[in-house]
Amino acid sequence: MPHEPPLAHLRHEKAVVSAIVPYTGLILSICCVLMFLLRYYILEPLAILIFKRNYLGLDPNRQRGTINHMMAVATKALLLLIASYPVIAIIAVRDFRAPLVPGSALRMGDALVVISEIFCAMYIFELLWRTQVSLIGQLHHIGAIVIAQSAIVLGFDPSHSSDAGIEFVLCLIWGFFDVLAEFHPHLAMLIYRYRPAAHGLNARVLRVVACTEVVSTTVETVVVMSLFGSLWHDWTLGLKIATPILHCLFSYAQLSGVRTFWAMAADEDRKAKGEVVVPHRTRGWWGDRWARARVGMGEEKEGETGGGVAMDVERGGNSTQGRVERKKDVRVSEREKVSKAYLGIVRK
Asked: By CB distance 3.0 to 4.6 Å, which of 132, 159, 339, 346 could disulfide with 45?
């Protein structure tokens, strides 16, 4: 019996992936509203309860970074939980019109469209919520949003009737690896925030994260590019050109995060030995210029990974930062008073 090529059951899928595609704008809006409610009513009070003074003593930018890590962990855990079965099933033998479970009116395509909208809402939240996002992080997030939305509606374009289904599945695999690769970095940053003085533990965690990022990026490249190559004759010219370029961009974003994690681990090792941590490059040419300008204005430097997992790196300071820290003490105490009052209301 001849071996069937990958996604053979989807190669002649001419229909739109789901009947709810016309309502994707509404679904995306609902996802964004739910993330706002989650952030405002649950994550911010929870951050005070869990991290206590380690959170209250942070400047507003790093407080936002901590909330973003919590939102990312919650959203990506949800995506991994609800997306694993339909993604694996659609890659194996199921088509978009197959019921999600036997006898259900909900189709595979319906579930995958909702999952894609949650994925997009997660990155929209980060772009709007964070005060600092690196250039490569911006490109990664914007690219992921545009690609995911384009893959959903590609079936409406007659010129893409032959590759709309397999392009949507390829984007699902991409997104699944992206969520899997960036889940543990966010979790590592929450551990870093919970016990900032545990330098030895933080160094080990950060090195493990850096190594797993390399492994996951390598596996992702092998899987995605193998699948892309096996379907070469089914792609239109535009996708043949755009897909490798976008994959290189996403891989670079993840590997940029590896460099930052490794640098943070080295800093934690030096802190554990009682050495002074000297600031070093983590952002690239444009990011370094902007960071130096912020330090000159009396603001703390904050490193970032390329993929958008913000690294709230604790760096060495100078006399200017020392004066700024004394001014911040007053603001920190005021924030603590407000936060404690807010926490009292929440507990009641």
From this structure: 346
